[in-house]
Amino acid sequence: MTEDISKVDQIIETYGLEQKGLIPVLLDIQTEYHYLPPEAIQHVSERMNIPMIQVYQVASFYKVFSLEPRGKHIITVCMGTACHVRGSTMLVDQISRVLHVEPGETTKDMQFTLEEVNCLGACALGPVMVIDGKYYGKMTVNKIEKTLSKYTETEVVANE
Amino acid sequence: MSNPTANVKLALEELRDELMATYDPSKPCVTVCAGTGCCASGALEVKAALDEEIKKQGADVHVDIKITGCRGFCEQGPLVAVLPTKIFYTKVKQSDAAQIIAKTILKGEIIDKLLYKDPVTGEKITHETDIPFYKEQHRILLHDSGSIDPTSFEDYLIVGGYKALAKALLTMQPVEIIEEVNQSGLGGRGGAGFPTGKKWQLCRQAPGTEKYVIVNADEGDPGAFQDRSLIEANPHSVLEGFIIGAFAIGANHGYVYIRHEYPLAVERIKIAINKAREHGLLGKNILGSGFDFDVTVQMGAGAFVCGEETALMASIEGFLGEPHARPPYPAQSGLWGKPTNINNVKTWATVPYIINKGAGWYSQMGTETSKGTTIFSLVGKINNTGLVEVPMGISLRDLIEKVGGGSPSEKKLKAVQTGGPSGGCIPESLWDVPVDYKSLGKLGSIMGSGGMIVMDESTCMVDIARYFLNFSRFESCGKCTACREGVTRMYETLDYITRGYGQEGDIEQLEELCKSIKAGSLCGLGQTAPNPVLTTIKYFREEYEAHIREKTCPAGVCKELITFYILPDKCTGCSLCARYCGDQAISGEKGGLYVIDPDKCQRCGVCREVCNFDAVVVR
Asked: Is there a contact between B224 and A85 if contact means CB atoms under 8 Å apart?
């Protein structure tokens, strides 16, 4: 699968060709494509005149970047301390069981990617789960299936 | 031609005068808290419903409605406060909007069901200021958080915003500003408490004309959200302090380095920067003072180590966030090798208050060695979760029990964790110590950026140590062997212990490793990563021993060491647990007794959560 990377040039233009533009450029590419397509990385390297190895170093060092395509819906479970003491590990276990993916993985049908984040700073609502930017505070294990099914249902409706 | 200085200054003050002339403090204003916490609970929907109702009921001439930043009491969100009376409503729903307008605004009646109920006394409290959570606080940085719209430049002017900037730029010399900050005793709020005035002075005195200043908003400590909230609530205060600092140091460009995980804060600081630029408070010749300064917002990309100043600068330059050995300090050689000054969000935001009210006023608050107030995020097993601002020197006990309202359950509180992965766990028996840099350091913890996580009997301290080490092992940048390998090895040992494979000698080996890692790491991450382990061993050794010798987890957390069990006398045979169990581990007949098969049970805890009769317990 090759991605259409026509937007990459536009992104590079926003930040310029200097080294300091690299992380902002990659962040925007990640936002646009939900991951860093290899074609985009190569293009960034050529346009910005930064060795491929350096671009990959940066892309693999920072957690926000994903080198694999991600699912349609991103589930992020907060693993901050406040969420941890209120049982966020149990949430991740349950999601893993329901979707058959480990944290960092995407379901085979490319619907969901399960991710962990160190802290979202929404500690008062812990444990917190975020799906596509929507926050679900005070989550419990037994609410997981119902919440996830909202997203699969939406898909079904959308496809009809 | 008239003096340009007078002209521009006039423009800012004219605008303020104009605003003040039309501003009527007695006009009712419904404020909806729109911090990340309240937004997650539906605050924006409440705001929309209020907007609609106000028109429907024809009340729009009598009342204003606006969003504000975080009020700190996130647990109770969405929060709505009616000004100027400060009637305070909690857990407000969209469907409450009609009543709020009809009753409270138009008739002055109080809606009982939306009032805050004190969890200890059961008493309903009408006004924000009477709620113990707020009463015990001393809000300076957070003072305006609940009344101004963070996206409004005008709101900030009405509360006196940018007066300090004008004072500093037009009537003070850079050295005077530094001296004032020095005298105030303000210490770096990022956690280490290094005197801010001194830091500025070092950077000012460093040779070179090109200098940089940075706002460190890479708040990576899990369990801390003060910086996020402050930027979301009052971004202009951070910016004002930042411009004053840049002027004092002699820097013409600044960076706000902010976490990518904080989208709302990013948006609000960008709005503030644009507004400030429009009004001539950023750019060339600010307020006609001849001083040029502009700001770039740079987002972090999810690396905890970038909170460390040298790693942060490497990240701004577009490289891996790896720390460098110091010296040279950033004040001599920082961003692109130029003198650079980095301060935490709260440090910058404190500066305008010091300039306005004077060093003497500021240094009256706090203790001998730690001045002023600071903001904590009080979270975990506690009644009043949220953001609190208190004077330095308050005791941990007062903070947790009075402001925090103690434990929300029957379970006893046993420890508080401060300072994130670099800090330690302080047992309840030592909670009478004052909160300041020195005292917390003596206990083996640190003040850190202000996260405080309260733990009760159902928190396993070995698991907590394992949790932090797991965090640090992933966040170690890998440069120093002691940190990269040592932290991983410690994590493995702790993991074995929590899974029942601990051996005699493990504790001693952990202590040994802690020493080596502290000695052999370049930056704060490695030097402090052992703190959670050291403090939990020091204060909760018996929990480690129970895991190692008896293969039990006293708190009932560590999965491999616990079994779920249904109490026969409490089970009503409702079958709910069996229906929820994903492993078909629960069997029984409706109306009869249900039992859990320990071999099939995966210890996910769903059964305990769904049981309405507290019949499922951990043994």
From this structure: no
Q: CB–CB of B408/B161 below 8 Å?
A: no
**Is any Cβ of chain B less than 8 angstroms from the Cβ of A61?**
yes
Instruction: Supply the pLDDT for residue B499.
Output: 96
Residue B117 has pLDDT above 80, yes or no: yes
Q: Considering the domain boundaries, does residue A118 fall inside one?
A: yes
Q: How far apart are CA B280 and CA B299, in angstroms?
A: 25
B419-435 tens-digit pLDDT: 888 899 999 999 999 99
Mean of per-residue pLDDT scores for chain A: 88
List the end-to-end C-alpha distance of chain B, in Å, as a whole number: 85
Burial track B572-584 (b if 16+ CB lie within 10 A, e otherwise): eebbbbbebbeee
Domain check: are B231 and B341 in the same one?
yes
Q: Given an 8 Å threshold on Cβ–Cβ distance, is A18 in contact with B606?
A: no
Residues B444 and B469 in one domain: no
User: Is there a contact between A23 and B301 if contact means CB atoms under 8 Å apart?
Assistant: yes
Q: Which of B298, B606, B612 to mutate to test the interface with A (most CBs of A within 10 A)?
A: B606
B223–A contact, CB cutoff 8 A: yes
pLDDT in tens, B487-501: 999 999 999 999 999
For residues A37 and A98, membership in a common domain is answered with: no
Cα–Cα dist B554/B258, whole Å: 40
Is residue B262 a contact partner of residue A121, using CB atoms and an 8 Å limit? yes
In a domain, B11, yes or no: no
Q: How far is A25 from chain B (nearest CA, A)?
A: 10
Top pLDDT among B606 and B418 is at B418
> For B194-218, how does the pLDDT look when each residue is reduced to its tens digit (9 = 90+)?
999 999 999 999 999 999 999 999 9
Out of A27, A58, A123, closest to residue B223 by CB: A123
Question: A154: pLDDT confidence band, cut at 50, 70 and 90?
Answer: low
List chain B residues with CB under 8 Å of A141. 604-606, 609
CB atoms B319 and A125 under 8 Å: no
Average pLDDT over chain B reads: 92
How far apart are the C-alpha atoms of B37 and B48, rounded to whole Å? 17
A62: chain B residues, CB-CB within 8 Å:
300-303, 321
Q: Please give the pLDDT value at position A159.
A: 33
Position A158 scores a pLDDT of: 33
Per-residue confidence (pLDDT) for residue B227, from 0 to 100: 93
For residue B345, the enclosing domain spans 153-363
Q: Are residues A86 and A46 in the same domain?
A: no
Question: Which residues of chain B make contact with A18, given a CB cutoff of 8 A?
Answer: 318
Q: CB pairs below 8 Å between A and B: how many?
A: 157
Are A125 and B304 within 8 A, CB to CB?
Answer: no
The parent domain of residue A135 ranges over 73-159
Q: What is the pLDDT of residue A4?
A: 78
Burial class (CB in 10 A: 0-12, 13-18, 19+), B314: buried
- ipTM value of the model? 0.88
Does a structural domain hold residue A152? yes
- Say whether residue B478 is in contact with chain A using an 8 A CB cutoff: no
Q: Residue B144 domain-assigned?
A: no
How many domains would you assign to chain A?
Answer: 2
Alpha helices by DSSP H, listed for B390-498, are 396-397, 437-442, 461-475, 481-498
Q: Are residues B355 and B208 in the same domain?
A: yes
User: How far off is chain A from B333, nearest CA to CA, in Å?
Assistant: 17
